[in-house]
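Before a colleague's protein record goes any further, I have to sign it off. Alongside the sequence sits a line of tokens, each denoting a local backbone shape. I want your independent view on whether this chain really folds as the tokens say. Where you disagree with what is written, explain briefly why. This is what I was given:
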Amino acid sequence: MDLYFSEYATSVAQAGGLPVHLSPAGGAAIVDRLDALVISGGEDVDSRRYGEAPGPRSGPFSVDRDAFEFALVERALDRGIPILGICRGHQLINVALGGSLIQHLPVGEGESHAAVVYDRAHKSHRVRIAEASQLASLYGTNAHVNSFHHQAVNQPGNGVTPVAWAEDGVVEAYEVEGRPVIGVQWHPECFGDDPLFGWLVSEAQSA
């Protein structure tokens, strides 16, 4: 999306890719011209997308953004191109695959995931990563990450396999079985030269 932080495009370029900002005006058909897709962070996914009424801490929702990004993900999945979901993007892809979300993680409990008192690049908590995962080949089995979210994966979608967890058990990353798709709850675009963007570009080149 062209209304969010520039770190996404910068991270793709640093990894050797050519970033293209997508506008809803172009429609989801733009995916046919892409080698990979990044779904970025932002506001909550409409809870009615996973069959739940909005809760007291839900929103604000953007119906138009949801419609555009769900269409992008559906088209990218159909084409089999690599997808990287970040924060909201991580949540949206899970919902697109039939999963659901925890609507609110209370601030001050567990890892206090929604605490925004740190600089964006501050790595505020540890995640444990499954040994056999693609993610472990990039980070090892432990990593420190930043955290700016109040929702998280609840029921994993079709083929969605959680591969990283915070110390309080919150799902911090997943991979999708048989597909070049990774979703992470943290914001790797804040770190500079993060290996996830290298993975994305490498997958795009080999697709």
